[in-house]
Automatic annotation (TrEMBL):
The chain crosses the membrane at residues 352-376, 397-414, 483-501, 513-536, 571-590, 692-712. It is a multi-pass membrane protein. InterPro entries: V-ATPase_116kDa_su, V-type_ATPase_116kDa_su_euka. The gene is LOC112290646. It holds the Pfam family V_ATPase_I. One of its GO terms (molecular function) is proton-transporting ATPase activity, rotational mechanism. Residues 24-58 form a coiled coil. Essential component of the vacuolar proton pump (V-ATPase), a multimeric enzyme that catalyzes the translocation of protons across the membranes. Required for assembly and activity of the V-ATPase. This is V-type proton ATPase subunit a. Belongs to the V-ATPase 116 kDa subunit family.
Length: 755
């Protein structure tokens, strides 16, 4: 049935039609009735197509025959007229009558009567691209003992064999003898030439032309009637094709699922084993009872919970808002059953980290307008067939919405609107040293700098006075770089904390004591301490070199810090933190494999020397058989695995912290590109008084802003935020080695299920 429906779809597509959509009605037609109907329609359509193809082939042959009669007739007529003209002149000179000359044969050798031979000829059509090769082969095969006349057909004609329109040529070949005729006929067959009979007498030619014209006219009427009938059949099929497709697709899915069931030993019932959400158990039992009642079954379906050691699939109930964020997480890997799901954290952290790199509230508003269009028109867009890129944007419309909102927020913090600052939140804490100049026109802003006159900070975000000053770039670089480190350390600590909840839920004390605690100590002893120094430096307003502090914490931990000291006893604290970090490495590496080995040895000794009671023999045998299926313990393999995990975390603590500096780099690149486009494109054009130049500058500015900043930069920041979540955040706690729960549902069926 699926094959027949695909055949109908191909026929409708070839005819240039589209299948009309009609909503599915459950009781329109049964599956058995549909199968019979599809069989009848397929047989009818096959018969119509076969008859149409046969008639079309006959029509093409008659068309070629008509062209042969026309072209060859014109050739014979011209030759006859030329021969008659020459003969008339000769007869006038010799005194013969004109009537005798006309009745004389056209082709006759001037030899003795015993040696006279009549020439034969063959007419037909051949593809134009083969005409030159055809002529050469004829000349070689007959050794030049033939005469070929060709006439091109102006318009392309339908080839009877292939049904395609190609350019062809009418030919007439004159020859002498039966052997030459046999050779020429074989060559015509080899080149795919279509030969047609042609009478030499002009009276028969006219009669044959009339007969061919009448047959073509009748055949055209028959073809039109057949095509109209086929169109009516296809229209009736097209009106119901979508409904039939859905019915067959559902029926196939049902039987595919039934094939997974096993037959009971009594061969009287089917047994199905599967997974279902705990919350869905009452619904499933109710559905089974209703099915038994509707089908008048004498035996009720038995629903029983099985206990198994097999790991269940993971199922997270999502809605249209949270689904896109869950898809982002599961693109890395489906979570193991009941492990912590990072999807709920991703709803906030993913768009926020994106906005840190994309901070501009002007660009954020543009992104918000696009997201609102997708959200407000989601019903209309959801019912349409969108392109690949539009489909992707529509699926992540709520992700884009939050990304835009957070971008507006970080844009206010950076105080950037298409790289232009605004003083929405009060006055600046700086002023021009020369009181006769305002802040905007102060010439010292880019040379000696501004004068601080108030110790009250700007209410929200970056003070707009920094924009355009000589220290703008060093200030924003320092701010964004340190902010990136703080955000990175915070998110990595969140990941390590989630690993504790995983270990606690699965009751794995080893992971708590020998994985969570040393990892937390190692990360915060080094980079947590760096974050503390950053915040302390901001609070104190001091100018120590944090690069020097961190480098010499490793190279010379006992050296006096001098002017780089931030608090009393800093050297002692750094030595303690360094020792904690060094102790944390073997703490992660050795205890866990050794404890696992000790447990395995005790378990094996208990199995080997334990006393068996006779009453427990049978149950113990079953237990031992089940334990043979367990994976064997290899201490070397466990130690190597723990070593890899330890090295990965230690090196990753450094590389992951450095990886968060991409927040600073991309934010800086976005701000500088925005400033370049604003200053070098828009302001450059606005420097002219010509409105046309201004309009061109505005169009170019809008184009590069949309193409580079709103498309390319958005995609770049999205991918970097994705990497930070997958590599730097999720690898601290998320295994992602589970498999997804895929319930049987008609809604999830797609066209791929028809294959």
């Amino acid at each position: 049935m699926s094959r027949k429906i695909r055949y109908f779809q191909d026929q409708i597509t070839k005819s240039g039609r589209t299948a009309a959509y009609r909503p599915l009605r459950d009781k329109d037609i049964g599956v058995d009735e549909l199968e019979a109907k599809l069989t009848d329609l397929e047989a009818e359509l096959l018969e119509i197509n076969a008859n149409t193809d046969k008639l079309q082939r006959t029509h093409s042959e008659l068309t070629e025959f008509q062209l042969v009669l026309h072209k060859a007739g014109a050739f014979f007529s011209s030759v006859r007229n030329a021969a008659n003209t020459v003969q008339q002149r000769a007869d006038i000179e010799n005194g013969s009558s004109i009537g005798e000359a006309i009745d004389r044969p056209l082709l006759q050798e001037q030899t003795e009567p015993s040696k006279q031979a009549r020439l034969g000829f063959i007419t037909g059509v051949i593809p134009k691209i083969k005409a030159a090769s055809f002529e050469r082969i004829l000349f070689r095969a007959t050794r030049g003992n033939m005469f070929l006349k060709q006439a091109s057909i102006e318009d392309a004609v339908v080839d009877p064999a292939t049904g395609e329109k190609i350019e062809k040529t009418v030919f007439v070949i004159f020859f002498s003898g039966e052997r030459a005729k046999t050779k020429i006929s074989k060559i015509c067959d080899a080149f795919g030439a279509n030969c047609y009979p042609f009478p030499e007498e002009s009276s028969r030619q006219g009669h044959m032309k009339t007969e061919v014209d009448n047959r073509l006219l009748d055949l055209q009427h028959t073809l039109d009637a057949g095509i109209n009938h086929r169109d009516n059949v296809l229209n009736s099929i097209g009106n119901n094709l979508d409904q039939w497709t859905v019915m067959v697709r559902r029926e196939k899915a049902v039987y595919h699922t039934l094939n997974m069931l096993s037959i009971d030993v009594t061969r009287k019932c089917l047994v199905a084993e599967g997974w279902c959400p705990v919350s869905a158990k009452p619904k499933i039992q109710d559905a089974l009872q209703r099915a038994a009642f509707v089908s008048n079954s004498q035996v009720n379906t038995i629903f029983q919970v099985l206990h198994t050691k097999e790991s269940p699939p993971s199922y997270f109930e999502t809605n249209k808002f949270t689904n896109a964020f869950q898809e982002i997480v599961e693109a890395y890997g489906v979570g193991r059953y009941q492990e912590a799901n990072p999807g709920c954290f991703t709803i906030i952290t993913f768009p926020f980290l994106f906005a840190v790199m994309f901070g501009d509230w002007g660009h954020g508003i543009c992104l918000l307008l696009g997201a609102l269009y997708l959200v407000l028109n989601e019903k209309k867009l959801g019912s349409k067939k969108l392109g690949d890129i539009m489909e992707m944007a529509y699926g992540g419309r709520y992700v884009i919405l939050l990304m835009a909102i957070f971008s507006i927020y970080t844009g206010f913090i950076y105080n950037e609107f298409f790289s232009v600052p605004f003083g929405f939140f009060g006055g600046s804490a700086y002023r021009c040293p020369d009181s006769q100049y305002s802040i905007e026109s102060c010439p010292m802003a880019t040379t000696s700098g501004m004068e601080k006159w108030s110790y009250e900070p700007y209410a929200f975000g970056v003070d707009p006075i920094w924009h355009g000053s000589r220290s703008e770039l060093p200030f924003t670089n320092s701010l964004k770089m340190k902010m990136s480190i703080l955000l990175g350390i915070a998110q990595m600590n969140l990941g390590i904390l989630l690993s504790y909840f995983n270990a606690r839920y699965f009751r794995s004390a080893l992971d708590v004591w020998y994985q969570f605690i040393p990892q937390l100590l190692f990360l915060n002893a080094l980079f947590g301490y760096l974050s503390f120094l950053i915040v302390l430096k901001w609070c104190q307003g001091s100018k120590p070199d944090l690069y020097h502090v961190m480098i010499y914490m490793f190279l010379s931990p006992t050296e006096d810090l001098g002017e780089n000291q931030l608090f009393m006893g800093q050297t002692f604290v750094q030595i303690v933190l360094l020792l904690v970090a060094l102790v944390a490495v073997p703490w992660m590496l050795f205890p866990k494999p050794l404890i696992l080995r000790k447990r395995h040895v005790q378990k094996m000794q208990g199995r080997a020397y334990g006393m068996l009671r006779e009453s427990d023999t049978e149950s113990t045998d079953l237990e031992i058989d089940g334990e043979h299926d367990e994976e064997e313990f290899e201490f070397g393999e466990v130690l190597v695995h723990q070593m890899i995990h330890t090295i990965e975390f230690v090196l990753g603590a450094v590389s992951n912290t450095a990886s968060y500096l991409r927040l600073w780099a991309l934010s800086l690149a976005h701000a500088q590109l925005s400033a370049v486009f604003y200053d070098r494109v828009l302001m450059f054009a606005w420097g002219y008084t010509n409105p046309i130049i201004r309009l061109i500058g505005l169009i170019v500015f809008a184009s590069v802003t949309f193409g580079v900043l709103l498309l390319m930069e958005t995609l770049s920041a999205f991918l970097h935020a994705l990497r930070l979540h997958w590599v730097e955040f999720q690898n601290k706690f998320y295994l992602g080695d589970g498999y997804k729960f895929q319930p049987f549902s008609f809604r999830t069926l797609s066209e791929e299920d028809d294959l």
